[in-house]
TrEMBL record:
Name of the featured protein: WxL domain-containing protein
Leader sequence segment: 1-27
Species this chain originates from: Candidatus Enterococcus palustris
InterPro entries: WxL_dom
Cited Pfam families: WxL
Domain of life the protein comes from: Bacteria
Membrane-spanning intervals of the chain: none
Region ranges (Disordered): 40-72
Assigned keywords, A-Z: Signal
Domain WxL as annotated: residue spans: 27-273
Length: 273
């Protein structure tokens, strides 16, 4: 044991002697620098939409998807990568005020088709946290091609936010209405309603964000009272729909089943002042 310790000590002395012989003659410092441009989607990747997940606690894994048909997008460093058309499909008429529910969206991921709740995706790559809001405008009127119309109110609830940019600090997440708080969209005058906000003073909004409306675990049940008669067999045109996207049609209106009706949803993405 003593020989081993002595040998180690001797080797350490030799190494120290060698190091001391290599004195630094001169030293100086240079810089490494990098500059950035706004990410306006004009690079080779273009506009890519991320999987928003199934809603609630079920988030996407960052995979790029083919978004649902009928949606739209905008351009620029602050943009909508995807905004949805909301489909209510076929529904049975009623003489009374009735609630109707949106179909879940269909995406394509990894060559397979899957359901997702209604969602939209915002990207802010202007640099820093400048803040923005999403407003949705609607005049609460559905119209046919020949001018027939009826009044109806669209409402959202159960909205959740997902970061597609690996941001984990929830204080930096944009805000949406409380989960069970129902937000009526638009007004009779056609004005807009704020549905998402990123505050620059809170360092919110930088990167890519998916906002989901609804949850695949909360489909309209086969029995229940989510706009359906309590304890009765549900209208089959309502079951398995998205309970978080509701259209209320007041009674006393004449609706023609031979016509298709639609309304304009105007999505606004506004930079904070």
């Amino acid at each position: 044991m003593k020989k081993t310790i002595l040998a180690t000590a001797t080797l350490g002395t030799l190494l120290l002697a060698i190091i001391m012989q290599g004195n630094i003659a001169n030293a100086t410092t240079t810089k490494g620098d990098i500059h950035f441009l706004e990410g306006d989607g004009s690079d080779s990747n273009g506009i890519e939409v991320s999987d928003p997940g199934k809603g609630g606690q079920h988030e996407g894994d960052g995979s790029i998807i083919k978004p649902p048909a009928g949606g739209s997008s905008t351009t620029g460093a602050l943009r909508f990568n995807y905004i949805p058309s909301i489909r209510f499909g076929q529904n049975r008429l009623s003489t009374k005020t009735q609630d109707f529910y949106a179909l879940f969206d269909e995406i394509e991921i990894g060559g397979k088709k899957e359901e997702r709740p209604t969602f939209y995706e915002i990207v802010d790559l202007r640099g820093g946290t400048k803040g923005w809001t999403v407003n949705l405008k609607n005049d609460r009127v559905f119209r046919s091609a020949d001018g027939k119309q009826f009044k109806a109110t669209l409402a959202f609830k159960d909205m959740t936010v997902q970061s597609n940019s690996s941001i984990s600090n929830e204080k930096q997440f944009p805000t949406v209405p409380k989960a069970m708080e129902e937000t009526a969209i638009g007004t009779d005058a056609g004005s807009s309603v704020k549905i998402t906000e990123a505050k620059n003073v809170e360092s919110q909004g930088y990167g890519s964000w998916s906002v989901r409306v609804g949850d695949l675990d909360k489909k309209i049940p086969v029995k229940g009272d989510s706009g359906i008669q309590k304890n009765a067999e549900a209208d089959e045109t309502k079951t398995t729909r998205n309970a978080a996207v509701k259209l209320t049609i007041p009674g006393g209106q004449i609706i023609d089943t031979s016509k298709d009706y639609s309304t304009d949803l105007v999505w606004e993405l506004v930079s904070a002042p």
